[in-house]
């Protein structure tokens, strides 16, 4: 592994984010290369200085960040909640339909079209009353 590549891994190496095989390669290179070892020691010193100085975020930081965003992003769980409620509605509707179908005996759940017989001519009721369900056409 060359010096430039090893130095590009210093941040991840310090944070222990490298896979074990890469971490081993960096460790072996640091043991063999004095220039990279000095550079790495400078990184270590910087990390220690940064860790020693606690930084407190301003109280209004989140509000300022949200103001700069182009559009309000909705949390992912809202989409999940919507999908779950739709699934529950479909399931309950199906269950209700099955129970209604089972509660009606043969011939009990049929629509009675006679109520439309007295509808005015050319009205929707008259058209529905004249519709033949078995043939799919008007009488």
Q: State the separation between the terminal residues, measured CA to CA.
A: 88 Å
Biggest sheet overview:
2 strands, antiparallel
Unreliable spans: none
* Mean pLDDT metric: 81
Tell me the strand order in the biggest sheet: 1-2
Shape: elongated
Written description of the protein model:
61% of the residues lie in helices and 3% in strands. The protein is an all-alpha fold. Among the domains are: 3-52, no CATH class; 110-139, no CATH class. The chain has a two-stranded antiparallel ribbon. The longest helix has 28 residues, at 76-103. It is elongated and about 100 Å long.
Helix-strand layout with pairing:
Elements: H1 3-8, H2 10-14, H3 20-32, H4 34-52, H5 61-68, H6 76-103, H7 124-129, E1 131-132, E2 137-138
Antiparallel strand pairs: 1-2
Helix pairs in contact: 3-4
Task: Write out key terms for the chains shown.
about 5% strand, about 140 residues, single chain, two-stranded antiparallel sheet, mainly alpha
Provide a brief overview of the structure.
With about 140 residues, the chain is mainly α. The chain is built from 7 helices and 2 strands; from the N terminus they run αααααααββ.
